[in-house]
Write a structure and sequence with these properties.
heterodimer, A: alpha+beta, 2 domains, six-stranded mixed beta barrel, two-stranded antiparallel sheet, 13 strands, elongated, B: six-stranded mixed sheet, four-stranded antiparallel sheet, 32% helix, binds adenosine-5'-diphosphate, binds magnesium ion
Chain lengths: 386, 231
């Protein structure tokens, strides 16, 4: 027998009370784990966006087009390593609800700008580059629809139609790319701009936006100014911003999810504080006589103080660790679910560290008052109060 | 019984302040207790028996005067020094057993051994010996809440002797028991005194309980009236 055993026995002597407080803590940390991972996945685009990448869009707003000639012009700006171009295709597979994030790009420049995110076999990339009807597919999409290299698949557009009137394009899957780091996105597919531009009936030679890689983040400001100045006072003025800022403003349009999540989490921890603090105080009050007896037998007040504090820590850590474990399983389940629209949800070390810090804080706050009461408890008073 | 003095109370006074009122329980009390005694302290309810036991056990302090134990003064020790001193020298037996409800019988008995640095093997042996002595070896794993009052008090006795203290302090140890069970418990205390050399101080208001002791002191209005019994 050890002090820890005594603490455990004290904690679990009232089964229902133990279970209810444990469960409340469990739920709070499950929510914390899941919601924080969700929030960090949402922000992954921002956090992980490279510092040396810019986005250049039409100044009116980013759904307005830019002339294709801009790509070549921007390439001449000093401080630029590569320029990629994008057209939003508005693609879906067989039915409109089977949305596929499809971009028409120039294979010659895509990897030059996004090679840090996209992992793909060189030979496959070459094959894709050579086949104008080829398509490069993200692993998440390929898994979702069971696509393999060599398949010929149809994609429809809900924006464009072909010159023959149909809205269905056929593509050969030439490669499936994966992510170079866990939270990078593999939900997109890439088709040839040339094929798209020549077959669609909408009026050609326009692109949606440009993705630009600079030689050094320090040059960003200078490059942004050079690009936007170059097209000032033309019918298609540009607005160039760092990729991070662009992603941030994009997420901001979804509302302040981070704030909502942290309010929910904060509220749940506050409830824990009240419930556990109250039940600990009650438990120690009920044990007044026993604490008096322990002190009479020769247990020092400090030792009893520690045991009470250990009890609240044990409760919070049991519930908290169980909650985090369950969150891990839950997130793994979500990540494997088909049609899950976000990059992988991960309980990063950062989140776990935060959770442990919260556990320590909660353990301390809920235990300290009963522990001090137990410390101060006078033997005579304790034993006469029965 | 040896002639060595275990306890020496010198001019001990104890007052309580209740509101504006000052209650004097003892005023200049002097007494000594020898090693190996089995002393019964009797007196009507409210006469200060429990207060005296609290003073002797170092859980309460005299208002003035000195308490000496085994040749050293104890009334001026700090709270934590007193806790250590109690753990090493005194076994306590209470009227209502005061066992820990979440622990089984043998774990209750083991409790004071957490205050020693005995190995877990040594502890097991000590606990087994104490359980054997009180005749509860076959109930070691039972929860004390499922035991009769007499059995619970025997567990409490085992807990009081497990760390082998010189002295056992009992406050109304039979106050909650029927006559027959009380006699069993008292015989057990007698055995501990006679065969194991424990000094026993027992507070009681039951005259027949006092007959088990070697000496009885009557406490009345803060004074002792000594009555030597045949030994
Ligand atoms: N902590 C205390 N505060 C005030 N009065 C007390 C306290 N403890 C005991 N007393 C009083 O001291 C007297 C003796 O009490 P006690 O020693 O418990 O008597 P006994 O054990 O002989 O019945 C009683 O009048 C009691 O009310
Ligand atoms: Mg009393």
């Amino acid at each position: 027998m050890s002090d820890l055993y005594l603490v455990y026995k004290n904690l679990t002597r009232k089964k229902l009370r133990f279970f209810l407080t444990f469960f409340a803590i469990f739920i709070a940390f499950l929510m914390f784990g899941a919601l924080t991972a969700f929030d960090s996945a949402l922000n992954a685009g921002v956090e992980l966006s490279a510092d040396n990448r810019l986005i250049s869009v039409n100044k009116i707003n980013f759904t307005q087009p830019l002339p294709i000639s801009y790509v070549r012009k921007v390439q001449t700006v000093e401080g630029i390593e590569a320029v990629a171009q994008f057209n939003w295709f508005g693609g879906y597979y067989k039915e409109p609800r089977q949305q596929v994030m499809t971009f028409a790009v120039d294979p010659a420049t895509l990897l030059a700008v996004y090679g840090d995110d996209i992992a793909i076999d060189e030979e496959r990339y070459d094959n894709w580059q050579k086949n104008q009807q080829g398509i490069l597919v993200g692993k998440a999409v390929a898994d979702l629809y069971g696509w393999k290299v060599g398949d010929r698949i149809p994609l429809h557009s809900n924006i464009f139609s072909k010159q023959d009137g149909s809205s269905s394009w056929a593509f050969d899957i030439e490669g499936i790319y994966t992510a170079k780091y866990p939270q990078a996105d593999t939900n997109s597919v890439y088709i040839h701009y040339k094929y798209f531009n020549e077959t669609q009936s909408f009026g050609g030679n326009f692109i949606g936006w440009m993705g630009i890689k600079t030689l050094d983040p320090k040059l960003n400001e200078q490059v942004i100014k050079a690009i936007d100045d170059m097209f000032a006072n033309t019918p298609f003025e540009t607005e160039t911003v760092p990729e991070k800022a662009f992603n941030q403003s994009f997420i901001a349009q979804l509302g302040n999810i981070g704030l909502i999540l942290s309010s929910v989490v904060f509220a749940s921890f506050f409830i824990i504080l009240v419930i556990v603090g109250f039940s600990m105080a009650l438990a120690i009050r009920e044990r007044t006589n026993e604490i008096g007896v322990m002190k009479t037998l020769g247990f020092s007040s400090l030792r009893i103080f520690k045991m009470v504090l250990m009890e609240s820590f044990m409760l919070i850590f049991l519930g908290g660790i169980a909650g985090l474990f369950t969150a891990t399983y839950f997130l793994g389940f979500l990540n494997n679910a088909p049609q899950f629209p976000l990059p992988d949800l991960i309980l990063s070390n950062d989140i776990i560290l935060k959770a442990v810090a919260i556990m320590v804080f909660l353990g301390l706050i809920t235990g300290i008052i009963p522990a001090v009461n137990a410390l101060r408890l006078n033997i005579i008073t304790a034993l006469s109060r029965r | 019984m040896t002639d060595k003095i275990l306890y020496d109370l010198r001019g001990v006074s104890k007052e309580f302040v209740k509101g504006k009122e000052k209650i004097t329980i003892f005023d200049n009390l002097n007494m000594s207790i020898k090693e190996g005694e089995f002393l019964a302290i009797m007196g009507p309810s409210g006469s200060g028996k429990t207060t005296l036991l609290n003073l002797l056990g170092g859980v309460d302090k005299p208002t003035s005067g000195e308490i000496w134990f085994n040749g050293s003064r104890v009334d001026n020790l700090s709270e934590s020094q007193l806790a250590k001193w109690r753990a090493g020298n005194i076994g306590f037996i209470f009227q209502f057993y005061n066992l820990m409800p979440m622990l089984n019988a043998e774990r209750n008995v083991e409790l004071p051994l957490l205050l020693t640095n005995l190995s877990s093997k040594q502890r097991k042996e000590r606990v087994a010996a104490a359980m054997e002595l009180v005749g509860l070896s076959d109930r070691a794993k039972h929860m004390t809440s499922e035991m009769s009052g007499g059995q619970q008090q025997r567990v409490a006795i085992a807990r009081a002797i497990v760390s082998d203290p010189k002295l056992i302090l009992c406050d109304e140890p039979t106050g909650d028991l029927d006559r027959k069970t009380a006699d069993e418990i008292l015989s057990m205390l007698q055995l501990l005194n006679r065969d194991f050399g424990k000094t026993i101080l027992m507070v009681t208001h039951d005259p027949s309980a006092a007959t088990y002791a070697k000496r009885t002191l009557h406490l009345d209005k803060g004074e002792f009236v000594e009555k030597e019994l045949t030994t």
